[in-house]
Amino acid sequence: MVSPRDAVNGADAFTASAKRIVDYLNAHTPIADWSVSRVAGGEQVHLHVHDEGVLSRGRRVPWEDTLCVRMLDGGAQVVPDTQLDSDYASHPDSSVARAYVGFPLVDDEGNTFGTLCGVGTKPLRSADEVDDELVRLMRDLLSSQLSLSRVADRERRAAEIAEAMAHTDALTGLVNRRGWDLLLEDAQERVSAYGDPVAVGVVDLDGLKRVNDVEGHEAGDRLLRRAAGALAVAAAPGDRVARYGGDEFAILANNVPLSGLDDHFDRFLDALNRVGIAASIGHAATNAGVIGVADAFVQADADMYQVKQARKAS
Fold it and tell me: Cα–Cα distance between 181 and 302 in angstroms, integer?
């Protein structure tokens, strides 16, 4: 029997295909900057790019402010000069991205995943300079690979998540440090390959040491179990909550847009307050190619510490 760790890794296959396609298009078209982007949470993020040119890996733009949204709204897919095209001329980027090519990518459920797009700093002489059938073929191949990769990953990931969730903290029943590390491995794969929206939160309880010293360790254990229960109840279906160690808890949030992160993590503080527990929380979002999951955890921990110090000073 093939273990989950030895099964086909769709994320790696999609990444390899995306890189080969953007490199190929760079070499065989007059467009220099090519990208495979993801559209999620109201943003476009560039995942796989040929070089760090006009389009850089991790570049995030509100979806409504992109050239690609105009393409999906009916604009031309090959634009020799954006400043001379009525659908694109008013766009702020038309002065830099003079030539544009874009085709939508579709996932295994038939939804728009993102785009295969390219921009040039100089206009083309005509649309015929780009073989739109070639780019469309590349798009179709990449959409097929995306569908295959997502399907292949679904079963493998389910097994890996089940393995992670089986590592539990004896006191609280939440995922323990080992399980948390496995969850982060899975999240990093999804962020790097697909640009899935992932954020990390860190929660630090107030007063556990005082409770242990004054009321005893059994009282401290009850406090930890009460906190764990409150955090678990507050968790959305896409959240994973772990006891990271001592009086610190960690939260992995999936598919929450940047604009909703503050409210999303506030729900955990509200849940703790309802059971009479004061705490500090910090959070940070990942960004493909810029901020990995481990980096987000470090940022969230630093953010939590600043919140805690500010609360002490007030």
Answer: 19
Strands (E) across the chain are located at: 33-40, 43-49, 60-62, 78-79, 99-106, 112-120, 198-205, 239-245, 248-254, 279-285
Tell me, yes or no, if the pTM score tops 0.85. yes
What span, in angstroms and rounded, lies between the C-alpha atoms of 73 and 57?
24
Please name the residue that has the structure tokens 């254990």.
Answer: 221
Instruction: Using the Cα atoms of residue 71, residue 77, residue 80 and residue 84 in order, give the sign of their dihedral.
Output: negative
Q: What angle do CA 73, 75, 76 make, to 5 degrees?
A: 145
Q: What is the CATH topology of the domain spanning 166-313? A: Alpha-Beta Plaits (3.30.70)
Residue 79, Cβ density class (10 Å: 0-12 exposed, 13-18 middle, ≥19 buried) = buried
Q: How far apart are CA 48 and CA 142, in angstroms?
A: 12
CATH 3.30.70.330 applies to domain 4-152 = no
Angle between helices 10-28 and 132-165 (to 10 degrees): 160
**Can you give the residue ranges of every domain in the chain?**
4-152, 166-313
Residue 108: per-residue pLDDT: 87
What is the pLDDT, as a whole number, of residue 2? 43
Residue 152 and residue 7 in contact, taking contact as beta carbons nearer than 8 Å: yes
Return all residues near 86 (Cβ < 8 A) that are at least 6 apart: none
Give the pLDDT score at 1: 41
- CA dist., res. 75 & res. 157, Å (int): 38
Q: 248 to each of 161, 206, 228, 299, how far by Cα in Å?
A: 22, 10, 10, 15
